[in-house]
């Protein structure tokens, strides 16, 4: 019997290290250059959205409930950004 839980196989194993190594230079740039701070903030907001998109795409055929949950989260995030843009 496999001791690994199903929840740990939702995201591909390469996603965490790739996001980490992409985040380091972006965050360093945002610290060193004050004009780059917005880039750092947007990148850190985009990382979970990209992870949710990967979950939707990679798990659609295998686990529809997980994919639908990630899709609903993405739609909610899009609505928050849209409403915020309308208010501002």
The span between the termini is 54 Å
Number of helices: 3
Radius of gyration: 16 Å
Instruction: Look at the structure and give the mean pLDDT.
Output: 86
Choose one word for the global shape. flat
Secondary structure: helix percent: over 70%
Number of strands: 0
Structural class: mainly alpha
Keywords: Membrane, Transmembrane, Transmembrane helix
Transmembrane segments: 12-33, 39-61, 68-87
Summarize the structure in words.
- This protein is mainly alpha-helical.
- It has one domain.
- It contains three helices and no strands.
- It is flat, with a radius of gyration of 16 Å.
- The mean pLDDT is 86.
- Keywords: Membrane, Transmembrane, Transmembrane helix.
Give a short synopsis of this structure:
The chain is mostly helical and 88 residues long. It contains three helices and no strands. The protein has one domain (14-87).
């Amino acid at each position: 019997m496999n001791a690994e839980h199903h929840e740990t196989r939702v995201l591909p194993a390469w996603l965490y290290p790739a996001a980490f190594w992409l985040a380091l230079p972006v965050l360093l740039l945002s610290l060193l250059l004050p004009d780059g701070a917005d880039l750092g903030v947007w990148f850190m907001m985009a990382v979970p959205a990209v992870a949710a998109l990967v979950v939707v795409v990679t798990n659609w055929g295998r686990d529809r409930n997980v994919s639908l949950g990630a899709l609903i989260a993405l739609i909610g995030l899009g609505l928050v950004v849209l409403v915020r843009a309308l208010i501002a």
